Amino acid sequence: MKKFKFIIITIILFIGMKNVYAKDSIYDYASVLTLEEEKALEEEVDKFTNKYNVDMALILVKYYTPNTIDEYMNEFHEKYFKEDSMILIVIDFKNNIENISIKTFKDAISLYSDKELNDMIKQINKKDGYYDKLDTFIKYSNEYATEEDELKSNILLSLNWLLIILVSFIIPSIIVLILFILHKETLKTNTNSYIKKDSVVITTKIDKYITTNTKKKRLNDKV
Questions:
Q1: Are 88 and 77 in contact (CB under 8 A)?
Q2: Which of 61, 27, 72 is nearest to 45 (CA)?
Q3: 30: which of 21, 72, 162, 174 lies 20 to 30 Å off by Cα?
Q4: pLDDT tens, 76-124?
Q5: What's the CA gap between 140 and 131, in Å, rounded?
Q6: Angle, CA of 104, 15 and 107, to the nearest 5°
Q7: In the β-sheet with 26-28, what is the strand arrangement from edge to edge?
């Protein structure tokens, strides 16, 4: 009984943690951004994500272990975003040469053409500071996404919220019902369930008492 309740509580906590979990969007492995710049970029990324229901990640890295930048981006997506749709930019400094790469995954592929992605890189290269480069990337990511894409993402977002609300209502209701049934069963339990079989023998005895009547007679003082 206690173990079952513990499992239910664990499930509830897991669902809660899953709902509040949020992915990072800024990965400054090269340490070239200030905290203020990271915060400002994160706010812009959040606006983009909420608008198009597509994740975005900005990476600055000095070197990477796979042979090509494309392999690095694929591994990054698999590790941190898995099945999520996203647009990803990487500014790397491998061999002391600055390179800019942009790649889309899943549904985000249909948002941008190759020509638009190449144009983004051209516009980014015109900027000097890394904050300005990343800010330009976010700006053109918004600009090249169409109103039709925004409408589709809003529909998907509404469906996702509807699903979340339904799941959030159904699961707690089932758990409450199970706990109610278990509690009801507990109340039916009597003391017999705590006694081992044949450990207690109860017998019946009748005690009979014999009663008699006596008469008292006063004796004379004289003999």
A1: yes
A2: 27
A3: 21
A4: 999 999 889 999 999 999 888 999 999 999 989 988 999 999 999 999 9
A5: 14
A6: 15
A7: 26-28, 55-61, 86-92, 99-105
